[in-house]
Every structure is written in structure tokens, then in C-alpha cells.
Amino acid sequence: MPQHGSRAFLRASPEISSKILTMTSETEFDPEDRSDAENGTDGQGSSALSDPLIGLLVDERYRIQARLARGGMATVYVAHDERLDRPVALKVMHPHLAESADFVARFRREARAAARIVSPGVVSVFDQGVIHGQGFLVMELIDGTNLRALLQAQGAFTLAQSLQYTQDVLEALRSAHRVGVIHRDIKPENVLVPSEGPVRVTDFGLARAASEVSMSTTGSMLGTVAYMAPEIATTGTCDARSDIYAVGIMLYEMLTGSVPWQGENPMQMAYHHVNDSVPLPSEVEPWIPREIDDLVASLAAKDPEDRPVDAQEALDLVMRARTSLPAELMNRRADIDSTDDNEQRTTALGLVELTSPLPAQKLPATSQAIVHVSGGIAHAAPQARTRKRFGKVLALIVSLLIVGVIGGFWWWHEYGPGSYLTMPVTDGRAVSDVENDLRSLHLNFQEREDFSDTVSQGNIISSTPGSGEAVHKRAEVLLVVSKGVDMRNAPNLSGMETDAAKNALTSAGLAVGDVREDWSEDIEKGKVISQSIPAGASVRHDTKVDIVVSKGREPLTVPDIKGKSAGDVRQTLESMGLSAEETEAFSSTVAQGTVISQETAAGTTLHRGDKVQYTVSKGPETVEIPTVQGLQESQARAALERVGLQVRVERFMGGLFGTVRSSDPAAGTVVPRGTTVTLTIV
Predict the structure, then answer these.
(1) What domain range is 433 assigned to?
(2) Domain count, the chain
(3) Annotated active-site residue in 185, 203, 243, 310
(4) 377 located within any domain
(5) For each successive 10 residues of the chain (682 residues), what is the average pLDDT?
(6) For the domain that residue 667 is a member of, what is the CATH number?
(7) Is 542 marked active-site?
(8) Where are the alpha helices (DSSP H) in 40-134?
(9) Is 412 within a domain?
(10) Same domain, 453 and 504
(11) Residue 129: exposed, middle, or buried by beta-carbon count in 10 A (0-12, 13-18, 19+)?
């Protein structure tokens, strides 16, 4: 990076400059510090003699046995928990961190927060305390190495390994973020790889406790600049999204073998984080698919608002990308050994400066340049000697000119302007035509396929170098060939929960359109009734799919139908989608065909197809007056009352014989039940 860029960065953000100064001095582990355990001294070697803590019983419980490592924040020891008879890791903070009056309180607070994290992917914190005025942590002792050591050994990881390690780290961060703990210093050194099980993340909360002390005392902050989120450099603040950024940088490193910006001083790297977007992994390794590029771009977005809000959302992105990748790519990894070729090319390019032609110089006149001869007196005539020497000089000059011309011609065509060709037009043309043009120019090329919404399948999307640009004749041209529009098959969403349907559309590469609710008698509430694009249909990747979600069965309120015409009631109920269930009854007070009563009360909530029960009047009940003439009074009365009639008696001549002479109304007459019949008794 040019120096003027660094100077501009420092002038614009002087506070960032002071922060980076601390970062350069805070390394995680000192490589020169070899542990007793590694050297096999079992705590009895030179380290034991130089370290007063070895052999000490801490808190009447933890016997320090050996020193593992010493870093910028703490020294790590192997200790034995004599109370529970188990090995533990004891991390003792450096004395300078305890100089702040409130560091111990902060340290305890962060230790408690870290202890709340319950996850198989987090190194457990067992205990904390103070020894000789220095805070210490008691943690789980992990049998294994760390991610940095694996990266150094392998150079880069396979796609499957990279995604699995990323997933494990995010699982650990998810548990931490759920309880409000931010790591603040995610990097390969803080990711331990045990001999069995998922990777383990360590040092939760320690970076925050230490950085708060540094910020309050020196105006600087602690961290690792290669993985530092931009907002930490600019404002000194961070949240869960800052951890996600560091995970994105780690994923880039695991795939490509290096961090996005390397080989520069910390200030320049911080400048890149703040001002530049993280490059795509496929720019380094063209075989890396677009899904991984998109994943890294999302995790390591420069603006925190463009990143996942927490580890859970980031984990969803990783799982989605992982399931969409072909199996044949999962075991592929970057070929880091190609750096040898780069070094050779660098060396070869360095020869250009050495073989460049010298500037043309005007030679002195030969008549005076070669007349002087060292040694004895010449016997030949001066003119003859002059002509002879002139011929030799002339031959030498001609030879030099020929060599110069040949050398210049070679340089011109190998390294100079003559070694460069003009790229033919590539964009939008058929790949076969572009290939023929490149072959005619004797240019090597490789191809990579990608989807395009604007360029037809089989045509060139872009090239590196681009159309009309200069390209060295021995350079390799990269052609990006269109696979056409990225078409996706619409999934079957019917019966899915709303969130599951949205996830299915996203996983299929389609967009969620309008979500509308409607009543359904068949689909339960909250599940998809229908979709605007039929299941299985092939559509563009950016197509929006509208869905209709069930609100459940439509509630229907029973109306008040008492006293209304039975025909009107039936029509009303059927139009509402309700079923009419009539019962008929006689009524002397309600007209025939009118609803007497409703058994399903008005205001009751029903659903489509449910029954409404009610009673309809058949009018008053009628009877036929039986023949009672000639019967005795008691017989006649019983016959009439038996059919529901009332009896009134009129006696003629005192009714001496007690016999019915006539009835009014007469026998055979149809009258309403309850009608009074008058009997004439003689």
C-alpha cells in the first residue's frame, strides 16, 4: 500500500493510530516461551526455577505444575485441581492489567459472564480469583492444538473443513450471544481443536476486560488487527456483529490460506478494514463457488448493518450455503504450493531492470580516441596504424550496435511495449469466437462459468484483462462464461408453516413475495393454502412467489331468525354457508310457516357447514268433532275431551233422560283443538 495512503489515514483518524499501537504489541503467545510440559521438564527445569508460581498451591486447591505459554494478556499454566483430582488450565493475568483500581471488578464480572455460557464448543470456566494481586481463571484443559497451528501445517483447509470449523465456532458464539456475551477477539489462536469433538472457543470476555483497562488508562485498545471489525477501529465499540466479522475473515483465511490483507503494518491493515470491502475468495481461488463468495461477503460486510445480527442468523447462512453445494467440491482446497511459481516469476521480472538497454550515448571521434599507444615506438607509418586501429574500432562499434539492436529487439518483444497485445472484444460474444481470437493471438486462457441475467448462455460475461486492455503475450486470460439465467424450481409450499415456506423459498433461491391471509375450511391456521408459482415450475432466481396463508375456518355468527318466514330463514342461512335444520310444531299463536323458536341461539359462533336448529309453526292443531248424538252425557263428554275439545252442556226440559240430542258444531266439523262444543241434553 502506498505510504501516502497510511499518512492520510492517520491524519483523518488520529485516535485509530493510537489504538493500533497497542495491537502491535499484544500477541497471543510468545513463540520463544517454551513450556515445561513441551520440554519434558515436568516443572523442574529452568522454567520452574525462573517462574515463582510453579509449584505454588493457589487458593488451597490448584497446584501449578508447568507453564504452557505467555501472551500479551496472561500466562497459562498446567495445574492440578487437588480437590477434584483433575488437570486444569490456570490463566494468570499480567500485573500491568491489575494496575487499574477497578480491573479486578471488571475481570470478575467478565469471568462470571463467560461461566454462564453452556456449550460443547466453549472452553468451560471453572473458577476465578486473585493471586498476588493478579486475577486468574481456572479453565478446562484441552488436549489438542489450535486452528492457527493446523493452518500453518496444511496451508489451507478443504471447503468441507472450512465450513465445519466455521459452523462449530458459530455454534459456540450462538450460546454466548444468547446470554449477552461478546467475545471481541475471535481468531485462529483462540479456537482450540481437540483430538475429538467440535472445536472449542476460548478467552470469552477477557479481551473486553483488558481493553476497558487499556482504553481508560492509555486511550488504546486490545485486539488482533487482522480480524478486527471496522467499527472497533473507528469508534471503539463492538457487538455480536463484530464477532461475526472476525468469523468471516477466518473463513476467508481457511479457504485461501491467508487473510485478505497481509504483509503490511497494522495501521495499513486497519485502514483496509475501515475503507475497503473484503475481497471475494474466488478472486484468489476461481474454483470457489458463488455461494461461498456470498457467504463471506455477508459475514465480513464492512457495514455492521449488512451482517447477520448474531451467531444464530450467521449459522443459518452457513447451513444454507453448505446444503446448496455439490458434493464434489467439498474435498477441494486451495493449492498453496503455487507460491513457488510466483517467486520465480518475481525473480524473472527483476531481470527486466538489469537487461534494459542503456541510454544512447554519443561516441567520441575515433581519430582522436585511439591514436595513443602504450609501450614502445611504432615502426609502421602513423597513417597505416591509424587506419588499422580505425577498422578495429569500427568493427567493435558495429558489433556493439548489432548486439544493442538485437538486445533491444528482444527486450521490446519480451518485456517492452512489443510484448503486450490488445485484448479483443469479449463481452457478450460467443465463447467459441473469443477462444478463436485468443488462439490466433497465441494467448493462454482459462474459463469459469457463472450465471447471468443479461448475457445469453454460452456468451462471455467478462474477461480479465477486459476488452481493449493491454495483456502480456504470456499472460493467462480468464474468461467468465454465462450459464444463462439462474433458473430455480419452485418448491411445494402447500401445508407448510409460514416461516418454513419463507425458508424454503430462500433455500430454493427465490424471493418471498406478498403474504396474504384467507379463510380455509381445509387448511389449518398458519399454513399455506396456495402459491402464485406452481410447485416444480422453473423460474428465474429473482422471481417473487406470493403465498396465501390460512386464517383457519371462517367464523359465522348465527342471526336472530325467530318470527321470520321459514323460507327466508333457510335462504339466509344457506347463503352464509350454514345448514338449516327445521322442526315443525303446531302453534295456536304463531302463524303457519313462521319460526316459533331457534334452538341454536342468535349470536352463536359457528363455521361453514355447521347446522342451525329451529322450529317452524304448522299453525293451530285441528280435530274432527266426533258423533256423540244419542250418547249419554258422560259418554259424549269423554269422547269430545279425548280429542282435545272443550264441552259445554245445555239441558232441554231439565235433561231428564241425560241423552245427547245434538252438538254445536255438528259432528264431522273440523275445528281447532280446544274448541268448545255445546251439547244439548234431553
Answers:
(1) 419-482
(2) 6
(3) 185
(4) no
(5) 33 36 36 38 45 89 90 84 94 74 65 79 87 84 89 93 95 88 88 88 63 40 74 82 95 94 74 89 93 95 94 93 90 68 30 31 32 36 57 71 66 70 92 92 91 93 90 88 93 94 92 93 92 94 93 92 92 92 89 92 92 92 90 91 91 85 91 90 88
(6) 3.30.10.20
(7) no
(8) 46-50, 103-115
(9) no
(10) no
(11) middle
